[in-house]
């Protein structure tokens, strides 16, 4: 586990700043900074920076291998984000599903797609030892 004095940082491309801000704020992420070429969010305790780069957008995104997201340790937090996404009509790339059913690494997951085709995965493992 990481120490609580560390924050993971991820930089991704975005095609337009305002629509990016709207998406991530609806998701529940707090806008930390906004510049002419990028926006920074508190993404569930970590830092996501969306850099304006319309030419860098993946026009045909696939779930694997490129995505990012959150693995929840509490099922209630997973369900809260899922319900928030549904209620705020955020675009799903993949509805809620079960992966590896019946195996120790079984987990529930769903994917959202942001306005720049970045894929976000949210998941919860039934066995907490499988998180890492």
TrEMBL record:
Q: Which Gene3D superfamilies match?
A: 2,3-Dihydroxybiphenyl 1,2-Dioxygenase, domain 1
Stored InterPro entries:
Glyas_Bleomycin-R_OHBP_Dase, Glyas_Fos-R_dOase_dom, VOC_core
For molecular function, the Gene Ontology terms on record are: dioxygenase activity
VOC domain location: 6-125
Which segments of the protein form a coiled coil according to its record?
none
- Pfam families per record: Glyoxalase (PF00903)
- Statement: the UniProt record of this protein carries the keyword Oxidoreductase: yes
Keywords, A to Z? Dioxygenase, Oxidoreductase
Lineage: superkingdom: Bacteria
Question: PANTHER family of this UniProt entry?
Answer: PTHR39434, VOC DOMAIN-CONTAINING PROTEIN (PTHR39434:SF1)
- What is the protein name for this chain? Extradiol dioxygenase family protein
Organism phylogeny:
Bacteria, Bacillati, Bacillota, Bacilli, Bacillales
